[in-house]
Amino acid sequence: MTDLSAKRILLVIGGGVAAYKTLELIRRLRERGATVRAVLTRAASHFVTPLSLATLTAEKVYEDLFALTDEATIGHIELSRDADLVVIAPATADLLAKMANGLADDLASTLLLATDKKILVAPAMNLRMWLRPATLRNVQTLHADGVLFVGPDVGDMACGEFGPGRMSEPPAILAAIESALAGDTKLALPMVFASPSLGRGPLEGGHVVITSGPTHEPIDPVRYIANRSSGKQGHAIARAARALGADVTLVAGPVAVPDPPGVTTIHVETAREMLNAVEAALPADIFVAAAAVADWRTAEPVNNKIKKGAKGAPTLTLVENPDILATIARRTTTRPTIVVGFAAETEKLLANAAQKLARKSCDMIIANDVSGATGVMGGDRNQVTIMTREGAESWPDLDKDEVANRLMTKLAEMLKGSRS
User: Fold this and answer.
1) Average pLDDT over all residues of the chain
2) Catalytic amino acids?
C-alpha cells in the first residue's frame, strides 16, 4: 500500500451519478494518509451531500464562490494552489468544456483556471455526450494543455445504455493519482485517442476498416462527378469503433469534417484510389462501406479545362467504377469476418436493400432513405434499417453518432459470436 502521507488532494466533484464513487475514493485516499479537500458543484450536491463529504474528509466542504468567510482571503486562489494534485471526479462534459475554454463562473471552474498544480480528470457521462465532436475537441485541448486522464471505461450506464463514458472505478483512479504524484506525465489519453494497445473495449485488439464520404471522379482539372455525402456518418462510425477499443483505418473521400482522433485516416479522391487503400489496409475483422462511391467515372478525363463553344455541351463517355463493397465481400483471402454496406435509396427502400444484401455477398446492409425531404445527406440525423440474412430491424430517427454507437456495439457482439 503506497503511503500518501503529507500529500494534499483537492477533489472537485462534478454533477453526475458517478459522484457516489468519490466517497469510496476519499476513504481509500485517507487510508493511505492523504489529506483530501472536497469542492462540490451545485449539480453534484444532488448526488452526494456536503455532510457525507465532510465526515469522510474531516475537512470543510467548499461549494460557494462568493462565500464571505472564504473569499475574504481569496479562498479560490488558496484552494487552487494549496494542494499537490487537483482531481476531478466525475469530470462531466460541462466541466471539461469550461476547462478547455477557460470559463470561470462558479467555484470549481474558477479554481481550475487559477490553479498552478497538475490536474487529473476522471471523465463520466453518457456515451453520446462523450463521443460528440465538441467533447472530443475539448479533451484534445486539455491533453495539449497537460491535463492528465484516467478513463473513461466502456460499460453499462446508469441510463441503461452501454458504451464509453463510464467513470473509472476508485482503485483505478487511486492508481492514477499515485502515478501523477510520482511525476508520471504520460497518463494515457482516453481510449478514443490512445494507441490500440491501450484499448479496453469489446473490440480491443481488433481491426476495423471504414470508408466514408464521397468520391470525386474527374472530368477535367476543375470538374468532377460526385455524390452528396458529407462523411458525417462514416466518420461517426470510425469514432465509435475506436471508442470500443478497435484499431481503426478510415479511408475518406473528399470531406469537410475533421479526421477522428486516434484513427488512421487515409485520404483519397477517386473510387479506384479508395478500393486500393481498403485492400492495402486488410486484413481486418470488420469492414464498413459507408462511403457514397460514385458509380461511374469518365472514360478519359481531359488534361485541360473544357471550354464552352459553338458545339454545345461536350459528350462524356462513362464507365463503371469498381464495386468496393462486393469486391471486399467476395475476396477468397483476407476477407473481413464481417462485411457491412449501406443502401442509400430514394424509393423501395427495403426491397432494394434486400437485393443488395444478396447481390453483394455482404453480411449486413444498413438501409436508409436519402430522399431530399429527409435531410440525411449532409444532415446530423439518420433513420436506418439493419438488414441481415436473419431479418430486418428498424431503428428510430437518431443522431448519427447514436446510429454509429448502436451499430458498432451490434457488430462487436456479432464478431464475438462468430468466434465462439
Assistant:
1) 88
2) 159
